[in-house]
């Protein structure tokens, strides 16, 4: 049954008339029984694929014991996950939330509170970058600064200064006595799978140190193995002061987190921030299970090896179909195809090949397979992409021929 005209869900999504009833690994089974190769992963969420036995066992076992108690009491599962995340990163402290937008809100509050705790409450402004996407709340929309998302929602939340992507001079020029931090995604996912050059991130770190600013990384999409390391910043050796996580952190269970150094978190004392559901035992069981799998020997080496293999196959397809694909982008298993045709046409053509993908900005189609994808499944995906490109290339060639004849 189509949702259009019959559904009581708020119509804020242009949903495809397709529903899934179960999944296994990188495969989804639709309600009509058809199997689809899932290279969306719930938009970078299902890092362990569907129905991963370790994740199922952890959630099932915890659900039979305790789901929620509130943060009025100690939650041992949360303390364990926080300790493990800190041991694997730059951080000293973790705050658990329920989503990426909430994690980003926490990061923004923390950056502002840091300067207030240091006696400079006037330092609240954050420098961000054109094309960024940081969430759908009023503050995170203002951080992204994209007009199409802000229109109609009243005054834009104050305190964000957008500069052009990759422009260090613009960053330096935007710094004022009110500047508190610089916020960036190490790889812009929604913004078109644009990889930020390592030298640019290193320069931002130097600028922050020079001016007493905090460096904030939005790793909601890039974190938890997606870029080939547990966190994308580890690829380039540039540590932030604050980092937001979500998406793959719970392997499909909704959760987010703010990670920070002890210095950056100094203003976040009792009563300054909170969450009813954040850090509940069920979410923490999921997060710990995800870490169990990802921190096993060889996990990230395998992600990097499959990434290289996939990129080679995609580069060959791009060379064969330059009228469909102009560029292959990304790191790890956060890859993008910049399309020559409208990106939506490529997404539709891939879905016709029983492969689901997701569009991004800059006319890009994102390829986000579960991190447990096999070499055979990567080869299968490449064949489906090739068939979709052939179909689109022929379609557009025929349209050009007919246009010339007309």
Quick summary:
The protein is α/β, with parallel strands linked by helices.
Layout of helices and strands, plus pairs?
Elements: E1 20-24, E2 27-30, E3 35-38, H1 41-44, H2 53-63, H3 76-87, E4 93-97, H4 100-117, E5 125-129, H5 138-144, H6 147-150, E6 160-163, H7 168-174, E7 179-184, E8 187-188, E9 194-195, H8 198-211, E10 214-218, H9 233-236, E11 242-245, E12 256-260, H10 281-294, H11 299-320, E13 325-331, E14 334-339, H12 343-352, E15 355-356, E16 358-360, E17 364-367, H13 375-405
Which tags fit this structure?
alpha/beta; Aspartate Aminotransferase, domain 2; 7-stranded mixed β-sheet; 4-stranded mixed β-sheet; globular; 406 residues; 17 strands
According to CATH, the fold-level topology of the domain at 91-272 is Aspartate Aminotransferase, domain 2
Report the top-level CATH class of the domain at 91-272: Alpha Beta
Strand order of the largest sheet: 4-12-11-10-7-5-6
CATH superfamily of the domain at 91-272: Type I PLP-dependent aspartate aminotransferase-like (Major domain)
Tell the overall outline. globular
Number of helices: 13
Over all CA atoms, what is the radius of gyration? 22 Å
Name the CATH architecture of the domain at 91-272.
Answer: 3-Layer(aba) Sandwich
Strand content: 15-25%
Helix content: 25-40%
- Arithmetic mean of pLDDT: 96
Strand count? 17
Q: Spans of 5+ residues with little confidence (pLDDT < 50)?
A: none
Q: Give the N-to-C terminal Cα separation.
A: 41 Å
Q: Report the sheet with the most strands, covering strand number, pairing sense and barrel closure.
A: 7 strands, mixed
Q: Supply the helix-strand structural class.
A: alpha/beta
- H/E topology pattern: EEEHHHEHEHHEHEEEHEHEEHHEEHEEEH
């Amino acid at each position: 049954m189509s949702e259009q005209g019959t559904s009581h869900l708020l119509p804020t999504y242009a949903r495809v008339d397709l529903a899934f009833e179960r999944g296994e690994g990188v495969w989804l089974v639709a309600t009509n029984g058809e199997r689809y190769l899932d290279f969306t992963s719930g938009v970078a969420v299902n890092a362990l694929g569907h129905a991963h036995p370790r994740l199922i066992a952890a959630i099932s076992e915890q659900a039979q014991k305790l789901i929620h108690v509130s943060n009025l009491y100690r939650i041992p599962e949360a303390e364990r996950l926080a300790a493990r995340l800190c041991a694997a990163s730059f951080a000293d402290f973790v705050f658990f939330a329920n989503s990426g937008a909430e994690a980003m809100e926490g990061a923004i509050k923390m950056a502002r509170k840091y300067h207030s705790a240091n006696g400079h409450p006037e330092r609240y402004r954050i420098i961000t970058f054109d094309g960024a996407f940081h969430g759908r709340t009023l503050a995170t929309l203002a951080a992204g600064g994209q007009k199409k998302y802000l229109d109609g929602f009243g005054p834009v939340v104050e305190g964000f200064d957008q500069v052009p992507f990759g422009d260090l001079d613009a960053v330096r020029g935007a710094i004022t006595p009110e500047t508190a931090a610089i916020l960036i995604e190490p790889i812009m996912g929604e913004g078109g799978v644009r990889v930020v050059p390592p030298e640019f991130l290193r320069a931002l770190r130097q600028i922050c140190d020079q001016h007493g600013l905090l460096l904030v990384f939005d790793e909601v999409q890039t974190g938890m193995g997606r870029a080939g390391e547990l966190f994308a910043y580890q690829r380039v050796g540039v540590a932030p002061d604050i980092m937001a996580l979500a998406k793959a952190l719970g392997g499909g269970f909704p959760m987010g987190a703010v990670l920070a150094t002890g210095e950056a978190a100094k203003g976040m004392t009792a009563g300054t921030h909170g969450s009813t559901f954040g850090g509940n035992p069920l979410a923490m069981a999921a997060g710990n299970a995800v870490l169990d799998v990802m921190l096993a020997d060889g996990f990230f080496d395998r992600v990097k090896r499959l990434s290289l293999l996939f990129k080679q196959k995609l580069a060959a397809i791009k060379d064969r179909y330059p009228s469909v694909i102009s560029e292959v982008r990304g790191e790890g298993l956060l890859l993008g195809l910049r399309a020559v045709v409208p990106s939506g046409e490529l997404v539709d053509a891939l879905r016709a090949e029983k492969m689901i993908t997701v569009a991004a900005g800059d006319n890009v189609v994102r390829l986000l397979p579960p991190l447990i994808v096999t070499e055979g499944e990567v080869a299968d995906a490449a064949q489906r992409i090739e068939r979709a490109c052939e179909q689109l290339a022929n379609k557009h060639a025929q349209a050009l021929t007919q246009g010339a004849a007309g």
